[in-house]
Fold this sequence. Notes:
Blueprint: E1 2-5, H1 7-11, H2 20-31, E2 35-39, H3 44-53, E3 60-62, E4 67-69
Parallel strand pairs: 1-2, 2-3
Antiparallel strand pairs: 3-4
Amino acid sequence: MLIALDMDGTLLNAEGEISNENKEAILQAQRLGHIVIIATGRSYMDAERQLRLADLECPVVSLNGAVITLAE
């Protein structure tokens, strides 16, 4: 299963961060074998920064689909 998450208004909390609850939900989905991607209008650098701060690895579809970057 593929799970695509937007950042603003979905993944990020009011402080603009990935909450611990969202982080744990992503990790649980990944443990179950699901692919979790971030789909955002933001740049890859903005999305990757938030993922790094939360210690998460996910593929990113950024700039409204113009750039696709796979997690390493």
